[in-house]
Amino acid sequence: MDFKESLKDYQNIVNSQLQKYVRKEECPENVLNDSMEYSLMAGGKRLRPILALATYKLFKNDYEKVMPYAVALEMVHNFSLIHDDLPGIDNDDFRHGKPTNHKKFNEATAILAGDGLLNGAFIVISEDLKNSDSQDLPNKLQVFNEFTNAIDRMIAGEYVDTEYEGKTITNELLEYIHKNKTGAFLKYSVRMGAILADASETEIENLTKYAENIGLAFQIKDDILSEEGDEAVLGKPVGNDKEMGKCTYVSKYGLQGAKDILDKITNEAIEIVKEFDNSEFLQELALYIKNRNK
Amino acid sequence: MDFKESLKDYQNIVNSQLQKYVRKEECPENVLNDSMEYSLMAGGKRLRPILALATYKLFKNDYEKVMPYAVALEMVHNFSLIHDDLPGIDNDDFRHGKPTNHKKFNEATAILAGDGLLNGAFIVISEDLKNSDSQDLPNKLQVFNEFTNAIDRMIAGEYVDTEYEGKTITNELLEYIHKNKTGAFLKYSVRMGAILADASETEIENLTKYAENIGLAFQIKDDILSEEGDEAVLGKPVGNDKEMGKCTYVSKYGLQGAKDILDKITNEAIEIVKEFDNSEFLQELALYIKNRNK
After folding, report:
1. Domain count of chain A?
2. Does B261 touch chain A (CB under 8 A)?
3. Residue B99, strand partner residues
4. Is B192's pLDDT higher than 90?
5. Vertex A233, ends A227 and A238: CA angle to 5°?
6. How far apart are CA B143 and CA B3, in angstroms?
7. What's the CA gap between A172 and A79, in Å, rounded?
8. Residues in A 136-195 with any Cβ partner in B closer than 8 A
9. Cα(B74)–Cα(B82) distance, rounded to whole angstroms?
10. pLDDT in tens, B223-243
C-alpha cells in the first residue's frame, strides 16, 4: 500500500460525493448556496470522513452504508469552521489559504451558511434513514444519536476555548477543551465507521481507543504547528496562539514536552490498530497526523 | 371551550417540557447552557409546538409520540431567533421585551447558543428515534425528514430577507420570503402533528392547507403590527421595517389591503378546519393569530 496514493484516492472519493450535495438550481438563495459550496469545497484534509471510510473498510468491501454519514461529518466540520472564524468568535481572515467565508461573502451569509451546513448534514441523514431497510436502522439510529452528541461536545469545547482565551487555565481545562472541541468528533468518526460495519463490542472499544489517541495527537500537532509551522504551507499566521495568550500543549508542556507526548500517544494508537487485518492505512494515518506540516 | 384557558394550558405543558431539557449540571460550559436556557425560556407564544400538539389532539388523546418533536420545534425556533437577532444579521437589541441573547451574554456565546439549540433539537429527536418501537419509525422518520427540509427553507428565507433589505422587490419575492422564512415551519408544525397521529392522506392535505393559510396570516399580521402595533406591548420598536426599507405586505398592499387579505385567508383556514371534530381550538387559534396585539 502506498499511503499517499490511498489518501489521495480517499480524498477524491469524498470530494466527488460532497459535490453531489452542492445545490446548483436557480433560486433566490443562490449566493447562500454558493457560500456553502465555497467552504465545503475549499480543500481541507477530509480527515473525518476518511477516518469513517477507512474504519468501515476494515470490515466491509463497499461504502454503501457509511457514505451519507461520512458526507454529513464533513458538512458539520465545515459548519464549525465557518462559525469559529466569524468576527464574533476567532475573527480569522484566512482558512486553507483562502479568505474565510465572511470575508469572501459577508457576515450574515457566513452565519446562515454555517447554519445551512449543520442542518444540511441532518437532511442527508434523514433522507438515508427514511430509505433504509429496517434491519439497518438500529445501527444507523445509534450512529445518528452519537453524531448529535459529538456535535454538542464540539460546540461546548469551542465555547470554553473562546471563553478562556487569554486566561490562564488548569491542565484539566486544557484537556477538556481538546477532548471536546476536536477529540469528540474524531472519535465519533471512527466509531461511526465501526458501528455501521457491524463491528463487535470489543472491536468498537479498541477502535475508540485508537481514535481518542489520534484525536489528542491531532490537537497537540496543531498546537506545535501554530508555534513553529510554516505560514506559507499552513495558509494561516503562525504564533497567533501565543500572541492571543491561548493555552495550548506547547504553552503548558513546552515544545519538546508536547512532542514527547505526541510520540507516545501515536505509538500507542498504532499498536492498538495493528491488531486488525488490513489496518496499514489507519497505522500510516496516525503517523501522518504526527508528521504533517499543515 | 375557553380558548384563552386552553392556550394557557398548552403553553404550560410546553414550558414544563422545555424545562426538562435545560441542562443544569456543573460543567465548564455552564454559561453557554445558561444562555440557551435564557432564550428558550424567555417567553414567546409557543405557537409552533402548540400547533403540533393541537393538531395531534384532533386524532389522539395522549401526547406521547408528538412531545419530543414539539420540543424540538421550539428549540429550532429559538435558534433562528438568536441568530437572526445577531449584529451581523438584524442587529436587534430586544426580543420578548428582554435583551437579545448577544446583548445579555456576548456575540460568541449567542452564535454558539444558537448552534447548540439547533443541534439540541436533533439530540432530542435522535434519542426518541433510538428508543422507538419499529412500527412507529416510518411516520417518525418522515417527520424528521420534513423537519430538516422546513429548517432549510427557514434559513433560505432568512437569507433572502436579509439580502434584499432596503431594496425594492417583486411580489413574487415577497411571497417567497414569507413562505420560506415563517410559513414552511408553521406548515411543518401542523403536518408533524397530523402525521404522527396517523391521519389519512386527505386529512393531512386539508390540515396542510389550513397551516399554509395561518402561516401567511401570521406573517401579514407581523407586518401590520410592525407598522401600527404598540411598542410597549410588542416589546420591540415599531416602524423599523419602514425605516430600514423592508418590503412587507403593508408596504406592498397598503395597511387596509394587508388587513383585507388577512381577513380572507383567516376565514378560509377556519372553513377548512371546521370539517374536523373537536377543532374549536384550531379555529380560535386562526382568529387569535389575526387579532393578536403582539
Report:
1. 1
2. no
3. B94
4. yes
5. 25
6. 28
7. 27
8. 137, 141-142, 144-145, 147-149, 151-152, 155-156, 158-160, 162-163, 173, 176
9. 12
10. 899 888 777 777 667 776 665
Least Cα distance to B83 among B101, B97, B106 occurs for B101
What is the separation of C-alpha A258 from the centre of its chain, rounded to a whole number of angstroms? 21
Q: What is d(CA B249, CA B178) in angstroms, rounded to the nearest whole number?
A: 10
pLDDT at A121 over 70: yes
How far apart are alpha carbons A85 and A174 in whole angstroms? 20
Rounded-to-integer distance, Cα B137 and Cα B134, Å? 5
Contacts of B260 (CB under 8 A, 6+ apart): none
Mutate to test the interface with A, among B25, B69, B130 (most CBs of A within 10 A): B130
Rounded CA-CA distance A120/A37 in Å is 12
pTM of the model: 0.94
Which chain A residue's Cα is nearest to B169? A28
pLDDT tens by residue, A206-239: 999 999 999 999 989 988 998 887 777 776 677 7
Contacts of B271 (CB under 8 A, 6+ apart): none
CB A252 within 8 A of CB A177: no
A124 and A71 Cβ atoms separated by less than 8 Å: yes
Q: What would the mean pLDDT of B215-230 be, rounded to a whole number?
A: 88
CATH of the domain at B199: 1.10.600.10
- The complex's ipTM works out to 0.94
Cα separation, A9 vs A3, in Å, equals 10
CA-based nearest residue in chain A for residue B33 = A156
Provide the domain limits for residue A49: 3-291
> Length of chain A, please?
294
